Amino acid sequence: MSIQCPTPHHDDEVVLLGHGAGGRLTAELLDQLVLPSLGGDTGPLEDAALLPGYRELVISTDSFVVSPLFFPGGDIGSLAVHGTVNDLAMRGAWPIALSVSLIVEEGLPMAELRAVMASLGKAAQEAGVPVVTGDTKVVGRGAADRLFVNTTGVGQRHGSLHPSAALARPGDAVLLSGPIGLHGTTVLSTREGLGFESDIASDSRPLHRLVLALAPNGPAIHVLRDPTRGGLAAALNEIARDSAVTVEIEESAVPVPEAVASACDLLGLDPLIVANEGCLIAFVTADAADDVLLAMRSLPEGAHAVRIGEVTAREPHGRVVLRTMVGARRIVEMPLGEQLPRIC
Amino acid sequence: MKYLDEYRDPALARRLLDELRRTTTRPWRIMEVCGGQTHTLVRQGIDELLPAGMRMIHGPGCPVCVTPLETLDRAMAIAARPGVILTSFGDMLRVPGSDTDLLSLRARGADVRVVYAPMDAVRLAAAHPEREVVFLAVGFETTAPANATAVLHAARLGLANSSMLVSHVLVPPAMTALLDDPDCDVQAFLAAGHVCAVMGWREYEPIAARYQVPIVVTGFEPLDLLEGILMAVRQLESGRFEVRNQYARAVRRAGNTDAQDAVREVFQVTDRAWRGIGALPDSGLELRQKYRLFDAARRFDVGGLRPVEDAECIAGAILTGAKLPTDCAAYSTRCTPRHPLGAPMVSSEGTCAAFHAAGRTPTRSTS
Questions:
Q1: A147, A116 contact by CB (below 8 A)
Q2: What is the model's pLDDT at position A41?
Q3: How far is B157 from chain A (nearest CA, A)?
């Protein structure tokens, strides 16, 4: 038997879909191209930024390009509101106002646009945040995929609640407000017509009220983060890196709904890297962990909150470690880019 | 999904590990053939909890990894043609060819699409009669029935724009090739449960007898693997070499005869080159003459392909279990999932990718 070795060449000269997937490719794009072009500070990349000169005000912007526009549990309109409200909330802020910008592809049925806008308006109303400005552009057929929505939000922070991805400390408990993987598997399933729709719905929802319920524990809450693109694995890796700590989580403690587990099993996807839109991770001091869990569980969006791990002093820093079902430890890597279902 | 919980029970896992430690008296070497099993072993850290000296050897059962470079180059040349929609499973899209990969080709404008079943490609062909829809059909015995059914369906519909680039491989010839290698030190096999769900295990019986190796048909959950390893060790410890079935909930001895009939109708056995390993006689499937209308390799004369393999990557030694990823000088440095030097770092089922995803470093090597 002769043994040979394949060595390929890679194409780095064009943008790939994976560059927008929230994993290592996205981080490379930001670190090597986007941030150097903008100058300014290079601190941890947070969900929302402090407004310079206004200590209590935060700002966040996000573009929503989800396909399909409608999926079980939500649509691009409600998602655009929830996504930005949640990014503000993860800096401990209550949303004050939103802007909404639409890029519409020529030919989009007016009924679909109407349905999206009705949903967006309802979501903003239910979240209690006014849409105060916006913009609408229409581009030629093929220049966009039906409809893109950008939302920018401004929020005001609650008293002593000043979480940051750089504030995790050894000894902190890692809490998760609810089950993971629902949004990503729902969208994938709906887009590809895989037939899981009846079992799964997106967890898209606003989390600002949940964060408000945590405000009394303000100083004990070091980090809040909603694990969207790149899932739990990306969010924990970002926190571990920005705080220079090691995060250890218990595999059996991470709540993965049965429908998500079966969909991921079938497709060869890891629930830890599947996107979420309605849960958050909180790093809190160990002595406050039980109080924070109780506060979370007092609201529907935190009813299934659990403790999934802790921050350790173990080196090297910047790593996420998973204690597996059989009692071994393995590193949870930052996901690379686009998730690709396996062959069998 | 009760079955998932049942096969991921920590208390049961500990009991099986304890039983394995009590049973094992020697440093046995067992190969799991399938990349999916490698993935579970490494992700769960099972291979690091085995009795002292005992070692799992990671086999060549990643279909993405063993697809020849020439097939990939051919797929990319076809995808680059105007009017073509090239379809395949997701993890084929990142596999490096000689010059590029299908994802990069897609970013440059080629119409490359992920499908979840070969029938999706046939449906795409029916919906786009003005386009040529090609399905890159790789895999072991597991995926062959669905591919055969898709060809039969395309034939029934009389689709002239539907074709497959076929690069199927078969497990038993790879096992015998490994066992014939004088350097092989595999003492028992875990056979891939899903392959056996299709093919049964009759064809493994002569291998077990001839080479005197225990073979245990094994599933993919952590407890499946622990039980499969224990069943193999029990045979090794008592000097037996039989084919046993751990995966009884999905596999019977004769396999799925309907699926086998579909495969026999559409495909015939042929010699096949395995990436990193080389040519193995009677180790692949190709379309029968009757269905050659659907053979993309014949329909598209791409010609002029000169696949370039480089000597740096040790993919061949990895695929045959001769070395571990952590033995490779390029592992996790010059070779990562971001910049894979070889296919085992690309597919989630590839041994190198499984090691990398689990954060294995050379200092933590189990070799």
A1: yes
A2: 67
A3: 22
> Which residue shows structure tokens 């191209």?
A33
Of A5, A9, A24, the CB nearest to B315: A5
| B residues 233-262 lying closer than 8 A (beta carbon) to A | none
Can you give A293-341 as a three-state secondary structure string? HHHHHCCHHHCCCEEEEEEECCCCCCCEEEECCCCCEEECCCCCCCCCC
User: Phi-psi category of A230—alpha, beta or left, where left has phi over 0 and alpha has psi -120 to 50?
Assistant: left
- Taking the C-alpha atoms of residue A229 and residue A339, their distance in angstroms, rounded to an integer, is 11
B320 with A3: Cβ contact below 8 A? yes
CA distance A93 to chain B (A): 35
* B6-60 per-position pLDDT tens digit: 667 888 999 999 999 999 999 999 999 998 899 899 989 999 899 998 999 998 8
> Contact B114/A340, CB-based, under 8 Å?
yes
The answer to which of A133-137, B117-121, B264-268, B343-347 has the lowest mean pLDDT is B343-347
Residues A283 and A249 sit within 8 Å (Cβ to Cβ) = no
Question: Which residue is it, tokens 């993405």?
Answer: B64
Q: Measured between beta carbons, which residues in chain B are less than 8 angstroms from residue A327? A: 10, 13-14, 45, 49
Q: Pick from B44, B90, B278: which is nearest to A1 by CB?
A: B278
Distance from CA of A114 to the nearest CA of B (A): 29
Whether omega before A316 lies within 30 degrees of 0, making that bond cis, reads yes
Q: Amino acid identity, residue B233? A: V
B152-185 pLDDT, tens per residue? 999 999 999 999 999 999 999 999 999 999 888 9
**ω into residue A68 within 30 of 0, thus cis?**
yes
Using a CB-CB cut-off of 8 Å, the residues of chain A touching B104 are: 10-11, 14, 16
Flag whether residue B347 sits within 8 Å of chain A, measured between CB atoms.
Answer: yes
Q: Read off the pLDDT of residues B335-345 as tens digits, 9 standing for 90 and up.
A: 888 778 877 88
C-alpha B365 chain-centroid distance: 23
pTM: 0.84
Q: How confident is the model at residue A242 (pLDDT cuts 50, 70, 90)?
A: very high
Task: Give the pLDDT mean for A39-57.
Answer: 85
* Residue-level pLDDT at A6: 42
User: Which residues, 6+ apart, have CB-to-CB distance to B263 below 8 Å?
Assistant: B141, B144, B145, B148, B198, B285
